Amino acid sequence: MLSDGTARDRDIARARLQFLENEDPPPTIVPEGIRNSWRRCKYLGIGTDEVVVPYQPDYDRESRLVRAAAPIMDRLERALAGSDACVIVTDREGWVRDRRVGEKRLSAHLDRVHLAPGFNYAEQFVGTNGIGVALEERRPNVVLGTEHFNERLQNVSCAAAPIRNSVTGRLAGAMNLTCWNGPSRTLMAALVQEAAADIERVLYESSSSHQRALLEAFQQATHYGDRPVLCLGQDLVLANSAASARLTGDDHRLLHRAADELGHAPRSRKEVQLTGGTTVLMRCRRVDSPAGAAGYLLELAFTDGPSDRDRSPSGTRSRTGARSGSGARSGSGARSGSAARSGSRAERDATRPWPLPGLAGTDPAWNTVSRTVSRCARDRTPLLLHGETGTGKSALARAAHALTGAASAPLVVDALDPQAADAGAGLPAVLRAAPAGPGRALVLRNVDAVTPEQGPAVALALEAAAAQGTWIVGTLHRAPGVPEPLRRCFVEAAAVPALRHRLADLPALVDCLLRRIGAGVECAPEVLPLLRRHDWPGNVRQLNDVLGQAAAGRRTYRIELRDLPPFLHSAGSRRLSAWEASERDTLVQALLETDGNKLLAAQRLGISRTTIYRKMRAYGISLPTRP
Ligand SMILES: Nc1ncnc2c1ncn2[C@@H]1O[C@H](COP(=O)(O)OP(=O)(O)OP(=O)(O)O)[C@@H](O)[C@H]1O
């Protein structure tokens, strides 16, 4: 830890000022983690001289995290009594849940900068700080004095470490130690990491015996080698990277059903056809815990459709499916384990971004599908892309085709287009008329909408185009939907991940889509967390529409919470009637206009405050508190 006057502090302070005036921070002076955080802060337009953070005084003081952290916080409070140090625990969104301070002056200072229970210290509100960086980058870090983005935090230093739920692998919160500038940074970092590990251990011990049994079985099975392993419990899915890269959430359900059908045989094998058409041989073992059957451990061997890495140099054709871990939204914990240990080529490839022109994303499943589509475009391998609507199937084909240096864009034909789907020879005729030859690409959207009558003629037209060198791509929402005569037209298949399964890509996608919408349009910092809460059934297309409409109707230079459509402010899972949807929208509008003040909103709508609370609960409305 350095005192205010050290040369390093001065250099960092100077680099920060230059950075604020648009110079990139010199890597020799500013550590990489800090540089990256400063860039994120600048992108989000975070203030540098005022601490303005959301506050929610009503939170669960008995949450699992708070209970797990309590004995560790008690111990640290005793150890740090009278010292110039403070320990803080936050939840995974950065809300401060507990704080213990050694001495009064530091306590008063932290109150002034709102580093106190009920306030949110995520990076998107306060800028570079230990808690924010630990949660954003999911790793321990130290932020010293002038490295803080906000000037008001520069007379303290902090070390923080993420707290993970070791069963699900998910982030649970962060542990942070803050003190006046001065003490040794190594000690701070070591102390905070040890405390985070202790909380993780308590969390593990408080998990169910089913979950612990599954995790143990999973760890044993993945300890050696990198064969695909999947563990399925009632509320938990564990997959190593070799399995998660090739299975979708629907595949998990199929495999679960197949395992159930095997009954109670201690070890058995079964062949299962996955949603992408690939067949997998699963070896299944039931996992028991002291409380009964916990779930299944499946060791998988993909018996057809070798993946990228198995493709021989002589050009043997293959089928691939790609997707990252799954099911997190359906109430199951999902994690990818042993990626570091296994390190097969497919896994390493998945972590390497594969940028395509005009598209954003670096999620492993997105990287894998981008790489597959590019290879197919280069080799003219007919490809079937499946994934929910708006995930970017046509966009991928367009971008990969452009990357081959082709002069013309792909011709996109939609089998659902009434003209193409015309009962006469409509669709086959449209396909036959498409310009064909090397350098051309033909995308047939909604392949599954081709009628049985049209199927044979459409297959012939696609084969004829492919024979002339045209790259053929088919898109549809669910892989098994390809009608029989058309199956033979496609040599490879790949899954495009849903947006809710790659939410880490959200900031890059928002950035990319806003650039398309127009120069200078940006989002207020509190917008991204709200976008992250949504499921996005319409995927990137829906995100694009929401941003486009919000940008068109924005009242200031940037998109604010109140510019977003009301459905984003509510998290209800039930389908609403038209009347209910309109009631919810009116409620959200009133709350936004009164800055979340329920009393004012109730008065404005002529209803009681109790009613407004009840309706907010019923519709799942929770407006982030505005600073
Ligand atoms: N990774 C991405 N980066 C930027 N924009 C994207 C990305 N993925 C999709 N989009 C945009 O989202 C919109 C929808 O994409 P696209 O039409 O390719 O979806 P799709 O999966 O083919 O949909 P459908 O199944 O309905 O045909 C397009 O505007 C596209 O440019």
From TrEMBL:
PANTHER family: SIGMA FACTOR (PTHR32071:SF122), TRANSCRIPTIONAL REGULATORY PROTEIN (PTHR32071)
Organism: Streptomyces virens
Record InterPro entries: AAA_lid_NorR, GAF-like_dom_sf, Homeodomain-like_sf, HTH_Fis, P-loop_NTPase, Sigma_54_int, Sigma_54_int_dom_ATP-bd_1
Matches recorded under SUPFAM superfamilies: GAF domain-like, Homeodomain-like, P-loop containing nucleoside triphosphate hydrolases
Top-rank lineage group of the source organism: Bacteria
Compositional bias (Low complexity): 313-343
Keywords in alphabetical order: ATP-binding, Nucleotide-binding, Transcription, Transcription regulation
Region (Disordered): 303-365
Listed name of the protein: Helix-turn-helix domain-containing protein
Annotated Pfam families: AAA_lid_14, HTH_8, Sigma54_activat
Domain Sigma-54 factor interaction: 359-552
Biological classification of the source: Bacteria, Bacillati, Actinomycetota, Actinomycetes, Kitasatosporales
